[in-house]
Amino acid sequence: MTRAGVIRLIAATLLGVAGSTATAVEIPPAEGPPATPVGTDTNENGVNNNGVNGPSTAVGAVPAPQDTPYAGVISLKIDATDIERHIFNVHESIPVKPGALTLLYPQWLPGTHAPRGPIDGLAGLMMSVSGRRLDWVRDPVNIYAFHVQVPDGASRLDVEFQYAAPLIGGEGRIIMVTPEMLGLEWNTVVLYPAGYYASRIVVAPEVTLPQDWDFGTALDVEGRKGNFVSFKHVSLEILVDSPVFAGRYFRYIQLDPAVRLDIVADSSGSYDNIKPEQIAAHRKLVQEAYALFGTRHFDHYDLLLALSDHFGDIGLEHHRSSENRRLPGYFTDWDREAVGRAILPHEFTHSWNGKFRRPAGLTTPNFNVLMRNELLWVYEGLTSYLEGVLAARSGLWNADFTRQYWAYMAANMDHDRPGRAWRDVEDTTYQPIVTARRALSWLSWERTEDYYPEGALIWLDVDTKIRELSGDQHSLDDFARGFFGDTEGILGPVTYTLADVVHALNAVAAYGWEKFLTQRLHSHGPGAPLDGLTRSGWKLIYTDVPTDYLRGLEDQRKAVNFMFSLGLNVSSREYGQIVEVLWGGPAYEVGLTAGTVIIAVNDREYRPERLREAIVIAHNTHTPIELIVKNLDRYRIVHIPYYDGLKYPRLERIERNIDRLSAITKPRT
User: Fold this and answer.
1) pLDDT of amino acid 27
2) What's this model's pTM, rounded to 2 decimal places?
3) Does residue 617 contact residue 586 with C-beta atoms inside 8 Å?
């Protein structure tokens, strides 16, 4: 069919949807089940299997995925050598049959919890058969779907395009290519046939890397010749779950027979002199995770770690690997970079929680079926809880630093989230879809992905409640082994629901867990759920001295924290610029907003230490703090009547209560 013919048929269909008498002609798919009109098919969870919302479109309708094998193997070749321009050149050879075919670009990606497949980077799309170019048409409703008519006699379709990786980061765009390293996420460089489960489509992936670069990935290597690497045939599902980190400066460290730490860096200086005790802590992380969960489901695992000033800030889980980025001083400036050491425990935990076991609504047959963001307070919240537990048990953090981490998390949720008054934490699970991690004007009131930290507080509450109920004979460790440790060697995913979580908790300690959890998930405060802290033998207090954790967090975020006093954060990169204001806080009350620049404090040029000094003076003299500020081209003077002094969170021991927090963080191996 000609391009003009396809367009006429689409136009007729759309007119028919609008009430026209035009006849809609349906093009059957090339193979598999008949095409299902968009908007009519749902899976067992009531989710639209076509991955779009909108009116039925008969012409080029996207076939619903079926659990049947796709005939043949897709050849996928990636040229990743154009690192200066951040371009991946893609060539696919797809086995086909004559007739209509729909190809999909992955949209809903596990771990992102949102339809954020970077289709804006797809460019230069060309399709051909035996050198003859074919016209394709993008679906008028589902922009991630491309329709093409395969001519008679054709057995393979050649697809070529470029993926233009981000050149500038920010607003959800992550730099994945630098002159020294790259991250190849296969979902960015593949189109796949609609109508099939991703697990039933087989791909033969190959990549050409820059000369003399090495790489790490969970994929099994078929062969390597110079900078050309071929991988063993693998399902599309596993391929997308197995990114590649490659770099000019590369080193791997075997943490145990099944787990490697694969390091790419801006220079070899980031890993040349790693101390034995640093390696020992990472090796202990692996052993403590095994002890916590009781087993592992992967045959091998790669902790992919980029140490860079330029590579994007990423932490993304996969079953047999994870993508992680820290600053170049991760090893060489060990004490100062302590805050960043929670990322590997977090992403490693996801191999069990999120990959092997996954909420039912987040488990879909391919990457273009809508996901439902349910139970993220388990998927991410429990993982956030366990990241601190494993960081402490492994020695990546010491006990005091771990308590400082808990203090900040508790204070941040308890003090800095007035938005709880209108929005409960369970509703924040939709935040990845709502904002795609773009900046918020009033984060404290709008709320962000609070199911991470507040979910962690809920699971501390659960852990300490189990210990209390059982006379400290049982703990969340027992839940973890029972819930995530089942059936060694099975990749999954094995789905779960709230009922499954409640059942597993009752198997450890009988209690009204559904009511317990529901109350906390739908609470509007006041304040965050801090019962777990109290039950652990500690309480949240505020002092005038910041903790090492808070100082490290300020370094990491490039912002000076005055949230617990004046109710604002000030950028240390854009000098004096306010980056966040607490809704209802002292700064809010005088009309300050993000984007405002502090020019002077009490008649002196702004410096962070002068603002701290002004807070102390106001406390001692009970006189307002005077600021000269600029917003756009407008200058003004504001007076903040805040007199409670500097405030920074930390934990204080409750002597009459059992110290369960120390028991929770005690090593198991």
Assistant:
1) 30
2) 0.90
3) no
